[in-house]
């Protein structure tokens, strides 16, 4: 893989001269790895390069696919930059792919797809005209200006590890900002001055946290400080774009690293203020757990309880992760110092559910996600006390019914919420929940708890009571539902007698 003359400087001053030898060896290893990956990736990329070159245009593989190639990862989704205009790109891709789209055309991006054929997997490409982006201080959307060189396009990328390219079809590696050295050092550094980069596109600050979560890299010191100084600038970015970055962060393999960046830099104060607020719930005598650290631990433990794709809660699961992160969001607002030096957080689950709902709505999450996360936060304490006294079958039925389709997630959230260092207490709680799950499984087998209904339907209620459709049918239905939860399945005659007894007492 040929290399451009400006490609690699192992003695990048930002890294320190003492690392030069070690980094040089790591760079050489990364280069060998990338050659192998790009060789397998290259057929479609080289073919597109030849098509664009024949039409008089430049084409280069850029960004994530190049970075991932050096990390030994291949991708079926390929990103390219080109000197061609969006219209010219669209015409070329229309002849190459089985399908193409122009949904990102105003930003210079045209997409195309080749469907899988035999042993050849599906390939998705996005080709973007060389460009520069910047934000108008009064606008929430970036202003797009098309550029004319690959090097100029790379300079507008968020981080040097994403500012590497491979020119096509000749497969020449281009790395004007020493991204390969930063990749070897596991460092997130901006191609240009960090303050200028983040001022041009404040969302890059969120991306720093996201990439820390995705690939485990450290934010370079000057970039970190620039985020601290400019954190408030993130408020100019639309809620939808911030939400998308936050979701990618949470769905990454190391979300705790990314969340730490958000909190340490002050970004979380503007995008997820409930998170840093949890750190304030520790009193000066440390008479209870650090709620912030506890929540991050619960998040990690919940992730460990996610299942494979064919399991009950396939990971990564955004709803479970959001609920784990926000389950104690209500603690700062409900903290109370009791007599004797204890600290209480009465009804923090209810307050937390309201706070979670408000925050997720502000971030423009869909209604289903908001409702699911809010319900899990509200229910996360329901289990507490189970091990101190056996629940009745009625209580178990209500637990299952209240959780509804969220039951498997609630199982995992409740188990993850145990962060005590007391091994005996942890074992006792785990055993208690094992017992509850066993009882749920037994009752589900006997009563189909997931689809509990009253023993009489609406038509039967009206016939027995001699009434027509109206609100009273709903009231009677709810009475029978409570009866069903309390006593389990009843035969028709017993349910009828109970309904009539209730109805007559109500009329009196």
Describe this structure in words.
- This protein has 508 residues and is an alpha+beta fold.
- The chain has 4 domains: 1-189, 2-Layer Sandwich (Beta Polymerase, domain 2), CATH 3.30.460; 193-272, Orthogonal Bundle (Hydrophobic Seed Protein); 281-451, no CATH class; 458-507, no CATH class.
- The chain has 23 helices and 13 strands.
- Strand 4 and strand 5 form a beta hairpin.
- The longest helix has 35 residues, at 20-54.
- It is elongated, with a radius of gyration of 29 Å.
- The termini are far apart.
- Could you tell me the mean pLDDT? 86
Tell me the number of structural domains. Answer: 4
Fraction in helix: 40-55%
Q: Largest sheet at a glance?
A: 7 strands, mixed
CATH topology of the largest domain: Beta Polymerase, domain 2
CATH architecture annotation name of the largest domain: 2-Layer Sandwich
Low-confidence stretches: 4-17, 283-288
Which term fits the overall shape? elongated
Write the SSE topology.
Layout (H helix, E strand, L loop, with lengths): L19 H35 L4 E4 L1 H7 L6 E6 L3 H11 L2 E6 L4 E6 L8 E7 L1 E5 L6 E5 L3 H6 L9 E4 L3 E3 L4 H7 L1 E2 L5 H7 L2 H13 L2 E2 L1 H10 L8 H12 L4 H11 L2 H4 L2 H4 L13 H14 L13 H9 L4 H4 L1 E2 L5 E2 L3 H15 L4 H13 L13 H11 L3 H10 L6 H25 L10 H8 L5 H17 L4 H16 L1
Parallel strand pairs: 2-5, 10-11
Antiparallel strand pairs: 1-2, 1-8, 3-4, 4-5, 6-7, 8-9, 12-13
Keywords: Coiled coil, Magnesium, Metal-binding, Nucleotide-binding, Nucleotidyltransferase, Transferase, tRNA processing
Protein name: Poly(A) polymerase
GO molecular function: metal ion binding; nucleotide binding; nucleotidyltransferase activity; tRNA binding
């Amino acid at each position: 893989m040929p290399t451009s003359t400006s490609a690699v400087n192992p003695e990048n001053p930002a890294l320190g001269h003492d690392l030069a030898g070690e980094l040089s060896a790591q760079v050489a290893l990364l280069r060998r790895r990338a050659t192998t990956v790009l060789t397998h990736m290259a057929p479609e990329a080289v073919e597109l390069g030849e098509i664009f070159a024949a039409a008089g245009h430049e084409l280069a593989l850029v960004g994530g696919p190049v970075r991932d190639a050096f990390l030994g990862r291949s991708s079926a989704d390929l990103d390219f930059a080109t000197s061609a205009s969006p219209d010219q790109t669209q015409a070329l891709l229309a002849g190459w792919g089985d399908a193409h789209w122009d949904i990102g055309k105003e930003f210079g991006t045209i997409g195309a797809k080749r469907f899988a054929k035999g042993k050849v997997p599906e390939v998705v490409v996005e080709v973007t005209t060389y460009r520069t982006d910047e934000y108008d201080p009064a606008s929430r959307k970036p202003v797009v200006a098309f550029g004319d060189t690959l090097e100029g396009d790379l300079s507008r990328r968020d981080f040097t590890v994403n500012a590497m390219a491979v020119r096509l079809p000749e497969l020449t590696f281009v790395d004007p900002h020493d991204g390969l050295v930063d990749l070897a050092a596991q460092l997130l550094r901006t191609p240009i001055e960090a303050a200028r980069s983040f001022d041009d596109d404040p969302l890059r600050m969120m991306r720093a946290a996201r990439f820390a979560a995705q690939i485990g890299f450290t934010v370079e010191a000057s970039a970190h400080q620039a985020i601290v100084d400019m954190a408030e600038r993130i408020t100019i970015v639309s809620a939808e774009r911030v939400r998308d970055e936050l979701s990618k962060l949470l769905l990454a393999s190391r979300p705790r690293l990314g969340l730490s960046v958000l909190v340490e830099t002050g970004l979380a104060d503007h995008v997820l203020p409930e998170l840093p607020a949890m750190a304030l719930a520790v009193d000066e005598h440390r008479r209870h757990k650090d709620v912030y650290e506890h929540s991050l631990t619960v998040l990690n433990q919940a992730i460990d309880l996610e299942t494979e794709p064919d399991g009950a809660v396939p990971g990564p699961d955004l709803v479970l992760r959001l609920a784990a992160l926000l389950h104690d969001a209500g603690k700062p607002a409900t903290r109370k110092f009791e007599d004797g030096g204890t600290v209480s957080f009465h009804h923090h689950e209810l307050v937390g559910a309201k706070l979670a709902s408000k925050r997720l709505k502000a971030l423009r999450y869909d209604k289903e996600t908001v409702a699911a996360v809010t319900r899990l936060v509200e229910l996360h304490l329901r289990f507490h006390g189970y091990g101190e006294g056996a629940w009745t079958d009625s209580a178990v039925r209500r637990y299952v019914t209240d959780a509804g389709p969220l039951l498997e997630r609630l199982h995992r959230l409740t188990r993850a919420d145990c962060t005590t260092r007391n091994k005996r207490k942890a074992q006792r709680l785990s055993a208690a929940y094992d017992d509850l799950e066993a009882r749920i499984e037994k009752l589900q087998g006997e009563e189909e708890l997931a689809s509990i209904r009253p023993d009489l339907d609406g038509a039967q209620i009206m016939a027995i009571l001699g009434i027509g459709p109206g609100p009273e049918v709903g009231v009677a239905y709810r009475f029978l539902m409570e009866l069903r939860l309390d006593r389990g399945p009843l035969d028709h005659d017993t349910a009828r007698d109970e309904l009539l007894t209730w109805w007559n007492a109500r009329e009196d």
